[in-house]
Amino acid sequence: MNGPPPLTPAARRILAKDRATLARVISAVENRDPAIVPTLRALFPRAGPARIIGITGPLGVGKSSVINALLAHLRGLGRSVGIIAVDPSSPFTGGSVLGDRIRLERRPGDPGVFIRSMASRGHAGGVAAATLEVTRLLAAFGMDIVLVETVGSGQVDVAIREIASTSVVVLVPHLGDEVQTLKAGLFEIADVFCVNKADLPGADLAAKDLRELVSLAASREGWRPRIVTASAREGRGIGELWAAIEAHEGYLDAGEARALAERRRISAELLGLVTERVEREVAEALASDPAVGQLLDRIVRREIDPHTAAAELAPPARRRSRRR
Question: Within its chain, how far is the Cα of 218 from the centroid?
């Protein structure tokens, strides 16, 4: 096919900055509604060059406060900002539990801000499968910066690297033992460390410990994580935090690092989409295909084991996914 896909009515409205349409399309993406795929296809080549910044870290470190402070700083610089707050999912409805849109400060009437919470829906790292698609929608809408806040369930949300170009890990003073426990995960994903609540005792010591750990660790693709101390409550250190983020973004642009990271993210996305499609097809077959029902009966009678049955189901699903 030559040229970008034709614009759907919803895609036209999003490019025209229709916030209500954007919200509806995001809901459709969350619900994995296949009817929205033509709109996603149309907007993919038309999404702007938004910077996607991940904010993660353990519970209680003040990630939402840091985002609030960053939002104010970025609006002061004239940057438009989209915020995706990924919340834990309700085990009953699959919906968002914490409602970060409520915890984040709203700025009514500000056309340069769009805030949306999304449910993690049980995905690893607390990052919803749909989050990457939503970042593209916000980029197509015209946002310069997209901040993605992850759940932070006591472990660092490693999956944020499949979405964000720069990952900020937020910590607080007196997390020494936890830093040691999470050290491998922290250094796997962190491009910038932010020691929040620097108005509390021990912040300088925490930053010093992090610098020592960073100096001992091997650099990742030529980049060593920056360490910044900040107090989101007092508004201190937020400019320095953004400068560290921009330094990493500049590093990505200076060589091949951005292209390599994008390739890695697209690879993970393709794997997720294919897995999702195969899972949906097999689930439908389990619910309605008589032949699959007979296969289940054979497993129940111990005539066949689940691994053998899965091998029988998977190849047809793989062939179907290739044809589409």
Answer: 25
DSSP output for 148-182: EE----SS--GGGGGT-SEEEEEE-TT-HHHHHHH
CA angle in degrees (0–180, nearest 5) for 60-170-198 = 85
Q: Let me know whether 170 and 276 are in one domain.
A: no
Tens-place pLDDT, residues 66-94: 999 999 999 999 999 999 998 754 433 44
Cα pseudo-dihedral 208, 210, 213, 219, rounded to 10 = -120
Strand 226-229 with 166-171, pairing: unpaired
Say whether both 218 and 306 belong to one domain: no
Q: Which residues pair with 47 in a beta bridge?
A: none
Please report which confidence band the pLDDT of residue 240 belongs to, taking 50, 70 and 90 as the band edges.
very high
> Among candidates 53, 130, 57, which has minimal Cα distance to 89?
130
pTM metric for this prediction: 0.84
Integer distance in angstroms from the first to the last C-alpha of the chain?
15
| Any domain includes 163 | yes
- What is the rounded CA–CA span in Å between residue 196 and residue 231? 5
Of the residues 234, 254, 274, the one at which a domain ends:
254
Q: What percent of the chain has pLDDT over 70?
A: 80
Domain edge (last residue) among 195, 220, 254: 254
pLDDT at 126 > cutoff 50: no
Output the pLDDT for position 104: 57
151 and 280 inside one domain: no
